[in-house]
């Protein structure tokens, strides 16, 4: 037979779990990045050894462009910083760089960083 | 505070385009192509060819060997005007009474335009068979212009040695030599000659035409004439197909393409 005391304990446990879940969700939302940095890369036609590549993107904070921030593009495969630029009043940046010299098809990964996130 | 997603970029090698890749005497011993007089039975043999594109300072080329079986070897490579390139392939026993082998040199004229600029077709017969009654030709060399002046005459030459692989008493046989221009789906005969040769005879035949279009494709071929067939049959022996690059107002240059044709 279910006693009233047991029902009260069950309700209390459920309420506590709900509160904990709400706390965790709101905390996670608060910890989500408010700054977003995008990166696109394009070549004029194929990306040819020793040719030119253009990196562009935007730095935003809660959806609004961040001006005056130094952005670096790093070749993650080689560790080399291939160029940097400062975001404009709308948060946009553009960097033109020279592609590596290769003798066969070679894939490189590039990533954009703000100064404080740049790997040492 | 912020990093972007990574972007993967594939960088392709830079190529230079142009010129005219040609089979060239850069194999050991001064040959452009190593081939065999007759089919080799159950042995394994090695075919080899070498090319040079000296009509451009830098070029992007292909060199391959094809056969009745399809592609035996194919390589693409960058070269300057002094860089030679060699490919080879080994082939075991083949079936049938004849086998076509084709060393092919080609050139990229742009990133998307490729041309085979010089290739040889050598039909190798069984030592004894009915197609040519045991007669065959040993190709010794071709001599053709690889650059030339527009609207001027040129000659193309081939030197062969007649041979017999049968067990009977060989006789004089007729061989048909032909110079033609090739185009998609057909050919136009420009000059020809019929020669009667005994086994052991060596013969150089020169045929002529007028060069009238840049990178025009020509063929110089030699055929065994089989009068014993049901109606005269022409059996392909050897052939060179090549393109001539216009260098007007200069007259251009001939090149020898020597062939090492061994007994297997």
Strand and helix layout:
The complex is a heterodimer of chains A (120) and B (264).
Chain A (H helix, E strand, L loop, with lengths): L3 H28 L3 E3 L2 E4 L8 E10 L2 E2 L4 E6 L4 E7 L5 E7 L7 E9 L6
Antiparallel strand pairs in A: 1-3, 2-3, 3-4, 3-7, 5-6, 5-8
Chain B lengths: L6 E5 L10 E2 L9 E4 L8 E8 L5 E10 L2 E11 L3 E8 L6 E13 L2 E13 L9 E14 L3 E13 L8 E11 L2 E12 L4 E10 L4 E11 L6 E14 L5 E11 L2
Parallel strand pairs in B: 3-17, 10-16
Antiparallel strand pairs in B: 2-4, 3-4, 4-7, 5-6, 5-8, 8-9, 9-16, 10-11, 10-17, 11-14, 12-13, 12-15, 15-16
Number of domains of chain B: 1
Approximately what portion of the residues of chain A adopt beta-strand conformation? Answer: 35-45%
Whole-number average pLDDT of chain A? 84
Principal-axes shape call of chain A: elongated
Q: Indicate the structural class of chain A.
A: alpha+beta
pLDDT < 50 stretches of chain B:
none
Computed CA radius of gyration of chain A, to the nearest angstrom: 24 Å
**Rg of chain B computed from alpha carbons, rounded to a whole number of angstroms:** 21 Å
CATH topology of the largest domain in chain A: Immunoglobulin-like
Helix count, DSSP H or I runs of 4 or more residues of chain A:
1
Distance between the termini of chain A: 67 Å
Q: Specify the CATH homologous superfamily of chain B.
A: Immunoglobulins
Strand content of chain B: over 45%
How far the N terminus sits from the C terminus of chain B, by CA atoms, comes to: 73 Å
Number of strands of chain A: 8
Could you say what the CATH architecture of the largest domain in chain A is? Sandwich
Number of domains of chain A: 2
- Tally of alpha and pi helices of chain B: 0
Structural class estimated from helices and strands of chain B? mainly beta
């Amino acid at each position: 037979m279910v006693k009233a005391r047991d029902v009260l304990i069950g309700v209390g446990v459920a309420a506590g779990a709900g509160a904990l879940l709400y706390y965790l969700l709101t905390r996670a939302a608060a910890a989500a990045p408010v700054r977003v940095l995008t990166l696109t890369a394009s070549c004029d036609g194929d990306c040819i050894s020793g040719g030119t590549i253009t990196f562009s993107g935007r730095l935003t904070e809660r959806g609004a462009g961040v001006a005056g921030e130094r952005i670096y593009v790093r070749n993650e495969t080689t560790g080399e910083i291939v160029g940097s630029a400062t975001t404009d009043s709308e948060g946009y940046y553009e960097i033109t760089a020279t592609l590596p010299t290769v003798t066969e098809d070679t894939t490189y990964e590039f990533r954009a960083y703000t100064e404080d996130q740049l790997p040492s | 505070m912020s990093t972007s997603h990574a972007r993967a970029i594939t960088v392709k090698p830079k190529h230079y385009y142009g010129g005219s890749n040609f089979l060239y005497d850069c194999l050991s011993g001064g040959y452009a192509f190593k081939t065999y007089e007759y089919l080799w039975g159950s042995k394994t043999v090695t075919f080899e060819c070498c090319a040079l594109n000296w009509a451009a300072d830098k070029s992007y080329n292909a060199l391959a060997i094809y056969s009745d079986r399809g592609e035996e070897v194919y390589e693409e490579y960058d070269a300057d005007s002094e860089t030679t390139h060699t490919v080879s392939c080994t082939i075991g026993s083949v079936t049938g009474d004849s086998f076509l082998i084709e060393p092919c040199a080609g050139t990229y004229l742009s990133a998307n335009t490729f041309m085979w600029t010089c290739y040889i077709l050598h039909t190798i017969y069984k030592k004894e068979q009915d197609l040519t009654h045991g007669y065959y030709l040993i190709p010794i060399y071709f001599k053709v212009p690889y650059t030339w002046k527009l609207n001027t005459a040129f000659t193309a030459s081939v030197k062969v040695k007649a041979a017999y692989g049968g067990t009977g008493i060989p006789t004089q046989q007729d061989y048909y030599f032909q110079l033609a221009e090739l185009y998609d789906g057909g050919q136009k005969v420009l000059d020809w000659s019929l020669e009667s040769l005994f086994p052991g005879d060596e013969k150089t035949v020169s045929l002529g035409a007028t060069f009238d279009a840049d990178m025009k494709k020509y063929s110089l071929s030699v055929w065994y004439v089989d009068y014993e067939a049901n109606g005269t049959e022409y059996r392909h022996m050897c052939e060179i197909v090549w393109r001539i690059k216009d260098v007007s107002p200069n007259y251009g240059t001939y090149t020898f393409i020597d062939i090492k044709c061994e007994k297997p």
